[in-house]
Design goal:
The complex is a heterodimer. By secondary structure, chain A is an all-alpha fold. Chain A has helices at about 30-40, 50-60, 80-120, 130-155, 165-180, 190-215, 220-250, 255-295. Chain A is extended, with a radius of gyration of 28 Å. Classes of the chains: A mainly alpha, B mainly alpha.
Chain lengths: ~300, ~400
């Protein structure tokens, strides 16, 4: 390709774009000048971050809440007037957290859809990458959880389409995970990092919901949450394993990873055996002592 | 309530003061505030953005007006900031986009119904159906990528349906220009409508151009690229309906009256008491600007401003759902296309026309708006949702 006049001095490096340029050590001479200049600077105002904190505190004190918790939209059983207000408060909290879980599961479904598309589209398949059928299984369960929550909210007398305050907050938090997952540049490992963040949040979310349901005397709901929590624990464990395997295989290579896995299994087996020996020894010692006492 | 623009002096320019704490206030609530409060905030940001844009362009061409423009513009700048910063941080770029399209749809629908010039009313209805379609495409994106329901933003006021498909909105430049009103004959409301919608569309274009690259998803990036292109077309369309023979000072005065008119419309409909006080304050500021600019005008132009300014304001823009009107227009005009400054039926558009050739080129590797919304029908709670018993009951109400 002909270059325009004047461009002859610009050398294009074939490795251009493959060098991380963010660190200060990249240009030592420039870095030295940068540091020296900053050291010699006198700030235009004295102090530290205290004023920033004070200003923020003012906003916190004056702020209005993000939004209101939803109320029931349909008639359900109502106790005496004295108990209605307390029941409403409890129901508001429950609906808020149910709304949060619902939004998260719905978003999670789209997250895993994007993950599946990424894995399937990868030009080279990594043997440590999560199998697509496993990802589909997780995706299907997220969808089922979403539909379960829809039904639960409606049966309680709520509106399952409401964006509750906790759902809103969760949406903001999850935004990063969706960005990472849908970015064509991210690797499967990086996508797993996003999935891990989502699964950790999801696990704790279901656990909290189960506890809340139990506290509020919603036994059936607590059981349903327990079931979902069990499934989410499996998701988390799988994601952890895949992520760990991918990171380790990148670091130490596939052969070393297989050896490490084998060594890890052997170690686990020895630990279990040692544990059993120790338990037997403790029982023997205990019976010996008792025999001694009898004397 | 109506304002006598010549009698009401508002607050003098030099008394219009701000500080940072005043400008940066507690934002509105995405969840609790009425969608039309958000619509008003977004539109007024657009109106102020247009004020700045116009005043900068005017300054480039009129040395003798530069100081007067800079003084007024300084206030408009801080008004814009105060208003725009009422949007909360949890309103994501895509949710804000849905809000922008709701502005375009509902405000244009109001304007189109009250525009006395039938040709211009048609121009507005033409643009309306295109913004309406953008809403549908963005809603599909929000559903399928974010797993979120656009109705959380729209609050049931605005339909989520296909309009004139975005894929056919791409036109050659000559098919985006329209006939301008005659400044000596046009009703005042005609002039205010034109500045309002031109400002709104320009803001929308700028916004999509800014946030498009913030999306990681390539489909989202493509969709914003496509729709931003249409918004640029809409700016071309709406600025072309304004008489280019209006002088700079005449335009400046019309801008100030448009700003008063829009703040007055906001005040008329605002339900949030805290926000209402902002509209009241800024009506007074804009009245102050108007009278300041009138003094400037009188130094350079011997005409009586009453020749082209209304004595009092027209009926305010209606901030309410225009569902019935929009569905009617959708039913009757979705297949319109443009040839030059006129509107034609789609079967009148020739295959070798400049717009068809241009459109074929732009869509030659597919259409993001078609891709993102392939088979999409909005449902409460998103595409993934099951139809619960309460939704079924709602449907029986309509049936």
């Amino acid at each position: 390709m002909e270059t325009r006049e004047g461009n002859e001095n610009i050398k294009v490096d074939p490795g251009e774009g493959l060098l991380n340029r963010t660190g200060i050590m990249l240009h030592p001479d420039l870095a030295a000048q940068l540091i020296q200049g900053a050291k010699e600077t006198v700030p235009s105002s004295e102090g530290d971050t205290a004023e920033m904190e004070a200003e923020r505190a003012e906003y916190v004190q004056e702020s209005l809440p993000i939004g209101s918790c939803p109320s029931l939209v349909s008639e359900t059983h109502r106790d005496s007037d004295e108990e209605v207000a307390a029941a409403d408060d409890r129901m508001e909290v429950l609906l808020d957290k149910l709304g949060e879980r619902l939004a998260f599961e719905r978003q999670g479904t789209r997250l895993y859809e994007a993950f599946i598309q990424k894995v399937e589209a990868m030009p080279v398949q990594d043997t440590n990458a999560p199998p697509v059928e496993n990802l589909r299984h997780i995706c299907d369960e997220e969808l089922n959880h979403f539909k379960l929550l829809q039904q639960v909210i409606v049966e309680l007398g709520g509106d399952a389409t409401v964006q509750t305050p906790s759902a809103d907050v969760a949406g903001v938090l999850a935004h990063g995970a969706l960005q990472i997952m849908s970015d064509p540049r991210t690797t499967v490992t990086q996508a797993l990092q996003a999935a891990l963040t989502a699964e950790l949040t999801d696990n704790d979310g279901w656990k909290m919901l189960q506890e809340l349901a139990e506290q509020l005397g919603e036994g059936d709901l607590a059981d349903q949450c327990a079931g979902a929590y069990e499934e989410e624990q499996e998701h988390l464990e799988n994601v952890r394993t895949w992520l760990s395997n991918m990171v380790l295989s990148e670091a130490v290579g596939q052969e070393a990873l297989v050896e490490a896995d084998a060594a890890g299994e052997e170690e686990e087996s020895e630990r279990q055996t040692a544990g059993k020996r120790s338990a037997r020894a403790a029982r023997t010692k205990s019976s010996g002592s008792s025999k001694k006492r009898k004397k | 309530m109506s304002l006598d623009l010549m009698k009401e002096k508002g607050i003098e320019l030099d008394e219009q003061k701000f500080d940072w704490r005043d400008i940066v206030r507690a934002p509105t609530s995405k969840l609790d505030d009425d969608a039309f409060t958000r619509v008003r905030i977004i539109l007024m940001n657009g109106i102020e953005s247009e004020a700045l844009r116009f005043q900068h362009a005017c300054a480039r061409m009129n040395k003798e007006l530069q100081l007067a423009l800079a003084r007024v513009r300084r206030i408009e700048q801080h008004q814009q900031t105060l208003v725009n910063w009422l949007l909360p941080a949890d309103l994501s770029p895509l949710e804000t986009t849905i809000g922008f399209e709701q502005v375009a749809i509902e405000v244009t629908a109001s304007v189109a119904q009250h525009e006395p010039d039938p040709y211009l009313a048609q121009v507005y209805r033409f643009g309306l159906l295109e913004d309406f379609d953008h809403m549908y495409r963005y809603s599909a994106l929000m559903d399928r990528v974010m797993g979120a329901d656009a109705n959380n933003i729209l609050q049931t006021y605005t339909d989520i349906l296909p309009g004139r498909p975005t894929i056919v909105e791409h036109r050659a430049p000559q098919d985006d220009l329209r006939e301008p009103y005659d400044r000596s004959k046009a009703a005042p409301i005609t002039k205010l409508n034109a500045v309002t919608l031109m400002g709104g569309e320009h803001q929308t274009h700028d916004y999509y151009m800014t946030i498009g690259p913030m999306f990681a998803d390539p489909i989202a990036r493509q969709l914003y690229a496509e729709i931003a292109s249409i918004e640029e077309q809409h700016v071309t369309q709406y600025e072309s309906i304004i008489d280019p023979e209006e002088t700079w000072l005449e335009k400046w005065l019309l801008h100030e009256v448009t700003e008063i008119y829009n703040y007055y419309s906001c005040l008329t409909y605002e339900t949030n008491a805290r926000i209402k006080t902002i509209w009241e304050r800024f009506i007074d500021y804009e009245l102050g600007h108007l009278h300041f600019v009138l003094e400037v005008f009188r130094k350079f132009d011997k005409r009586d401003p009453a020749e082209f300014l209304p004595a009092s304001l027209p009926e305010p823009i209606e901030y309410k759902s225009h569902r019935a009107f929009i569905r009617k227009v959708l039913n009757e005009e979705v297949d319109l296309r443009a040839r030059g400054t006129q509107f034609i039926r789609k079967d009148e558009e020739e295959d070798d026309s400049p717009s068809v050739i241009y459109r074929s080129q732009m869509n030659s590797h597919g259409s993001p708006s078609e891709t993102v919304a392939a088979g999409y029908k909005w449902k409460p709670g998103t595409e993934l949702a099951e139809e619960t018993s309460d939704i079924k009951k709602l449907q029986k109400k309509v049936a």
